[in-house]
Amino acid sequence: MARRKSKLFINNVDGFSALSLDVLCEIFSSLLPRDLLHLARTNKALRSFVLNRSNSMIWKAAFANNALAKGPPGCPPYMSEPAWAHVAFDNFCEGCQEKLREDPNVDTVWWEFGGRYCSDCVPTLMTIDIPAKLKRLYPADTIPERVLPRIGRDAPGQFRWYNLVSDQTKLLQQLSATRSAARRREITLKRTQETALIQQHSMRCRYWAASKIDDYQDDIMRRKQAKANKEGDLLRAKAEQVAKRLRARGWGDEDWMVNGMLARHLQYYPGFENSKSSTARLSREFDDRLVARLTADRKKYLQQEGGSDNA
Length: 311
Ligand SMILES: [Zn+2]
Known about the structure:
Number of domains: 3
Protein name: F-box domain-containing protein
Radius of gyration: 34 Å
Bound molecules: zinc ion
Pfam families: F-box (PF00646)
Structural class: mainly alpha
Strand order of the largest sheet: 3-5-4
Number of helices: 11
């Protein structure tokens, strides 16, 4: 296959002059969007290189790699790739820029609002009301709830729809700036169409996030199960080993034991699992204690049997 001509735009980027264009292309085509975000924050030169619109191919490559890695849905048509990478991968509050805690059990992105918001900023940046003065500027046949992106959340006691205050403020300014009803209709319709795209794409993102959480929780369960299985195997092996030593001392499977089996019965003795019998002397002492318990249990069983016979 003919090698595609490299088309990176480089402008005095630190250190890059030592690398050939082909090598640079090779490096950049293997990165993920998150890597590019980090690079863009490394220094000014890298930032201008990564964010240069002429180099959008490195973002296209990064999002193609992201798709292969089953990352979040690709860039929506209403955003640039770097802006979308910020929404999907950055982890700080859009309001106060505070770094947020990562929790693989929770989808923390307010996808429709393009980012994450801390609990302090939510009450000031979001609203559950659509202002009357905004509604008055909408054409009469408008469904006010459909004009701007919104997110439904379970608030204490009830389910609520949230809007971004900044979305409302901006639209209010745009609509107030014109006296033409036709122009207001045009603005409202355009915003409603943009919102429909945002809601659609955000829905895909939410499904992706939910399935990622499911995968994470399934993985945790599998690990727990594997650990439990391994521990169970170890415990059974240990019980077999001890039972073998006790058989040499005259013990065997008896009806009154758990499942009628000595090895099974031993596993239920408190401390059996964690006991260490690393030396011959410790093993012997350990076995002596088990024999004492078995003897006591057998005696108790026989007494109960005798008691019930008498009843
Ligand atoms: Zn905040």
